[in-house]
Amino acid sequence: MKSYFKINCIKIKKKKIKVGDKSLSHRSIIYCLIKNCIIEISNILESLDILSTINLCKNIGIYMYGPINSYLLASSLKKKNMKNKISYIGNSGTTIRITLSLLIKNNFVIGDKSLNKRTMYRIIKPLTLIGYVLQCKKNFFTPIIIIKKNNFGLKYNLVNSSSQIKSCLLLSSLNSFFKIFLKEKKKTRDHTERFFPILKKKIKNFNIKIPNDFSSISFIISYNLINKNNFILNLGFNKLRNGFFEYLLNSNLKIFFIKKKIYKNEHFAKILFFKFFIKKNTIFSENISKMIDEIPILLLLLIKLKNKNKIYGLEELKFKESNRFLSMYYNIIFLGVKIIKKKNYLIFKSKNIHNNYVKSLSDHRLFMSFYIGNVYNVKISNPENILSSFPSFFNLFNNKKNNYYVYK
Ligand SMILES: O=C(O)C1=C[C@@H](OP(=O)(O)O)[C@@H](O)[C@H](O)C1
Ligand SMILES: C=C(OP(=O)(O)O)C(=O)O
């Protein structure tokens, strides 16, 4: 009663936000490749990365209706007979990494300029140990084609903390007689594992409701914290993905859980956020895998809130849409912030930001982070990047003070 009374006394900004979780949207679609079933997905993310997965599945022979109004219906009860197809998957690393083991032989997967420069060694190596024969470009770049598939067992130490590699191997073992044992150095998001009990059920009809994407919501959280607003948000709440949230809590963020529920093994929450003072300084490497996609916005939030900070364990940032470790470093330096780069960590001390240009390359999180960092008078390149994960971004934050330019 006491807390309800307090909530009624503070000014709250409410806005209905619908931005389905990217990781869960990818996974819900590809379950049709594993099981013969009909899947109805609501609040699916309608972004370019998800359209890449949809495209790939259609190419393999899955019937699909949508996405329309964040709704998608997929059926694999009767498959079209399509072989030797070429699937273009844009710059979606998750699409290729989690579906590769499910593809049939002689299907080509090709990405855009940025994906074609991201090494696929991290999945090709373990898949080859399982018995796959794959062909790809020099340096393990896409296009990739599966020549032969054997599914032997495997005991594998995941040296890279990556949920994409883990999911790829787990999914490859699904239709196999042999077992796969994986050891993770650091725990990573477990959406794939959470869906396994549901897949084992003998029903042919699933309904999946996808929660809002915590990574996209982190931009909204940061924007409101910078502007000192109280606000309520609905979001997905996976404990292996809420490192950004835990960091804010440890830095004295005050929150109140209005609602919590579990649906199909995934956690949903409605949270009221209010009051925030930064207290903490160092972020250690054991926390990074839980906030891997939120690092760019966290860096800008800390810079904006005038803080001195160290962030360790950033090696995995080098394998994203851009080498985020370097691209964040160079862009921040150009804005006049004192920042020191060591092998895998950054130390920075914030101060007022200069006017300058930011190159977001082909990286959606870079564009959105610098935009929310509210660095007025800074020109940010390639606004079209937002289409990868957050197409409604400009509906929520069009402050007309930021400028863009196109960099080719
Ligand atoms: O499994 C997933 O859906 C993802 C895992 C993460 O990548 P890594 O597995 O390479 O860390 C994350 O950065 C990506 O946006 C989505
Ligand atoms: C790294 C990301 O995605 P992907 O690997 O699917 O390109 C991301 O969304 O930040």
Automatic annotation (TrEMBL):
InterPro entries in UniProt: Enolpyruvate_Tfrase_dom, Enolpyruvate_Tfrase_sf, EPSP_synthase, RNA3'P_cycl/enolpyr_Trfase_a/b
Catalysis performed (reactions): 3-phosphoshikimate + phosphoenolpyruvate = 5-O-(1-carboxyvinyl)-3-phosphoshikimate + phosphate
Protein keywords: Amino-acid biosynthesis, Aromatic amino acid biosynthesis, Transferase
UniProt pathway: Metabolic intermediate biosynthesis; chorismate biosynthesis; chorismate from D-erythrose 4-phosphate and phosphoenolpyruvate: step 6/7
Transmembrane segments: none
An annotated GO BP: aromatic amino acid family biosynthetic process
Ranges where the Enolpyruvate transferase domain occurs: 19-395
Top-rank lineage group of the source organism: Bacteria
MF (Gene Ontology): 3-phosphoshikimate 1-carboxyvinyltransferase activity
ATP-binding among keywords: no
UniProt EC number: 2.5.1.19
Similarity comment: Belongs to the EPSP synthase family.
Record's protein name: 3-phosphoshikimate 1-carboxyvinyltransferase
Annotated organism of origin: Candidatus Carsonella ruddii (Diaphorina cf. continua)
Gene: aroA
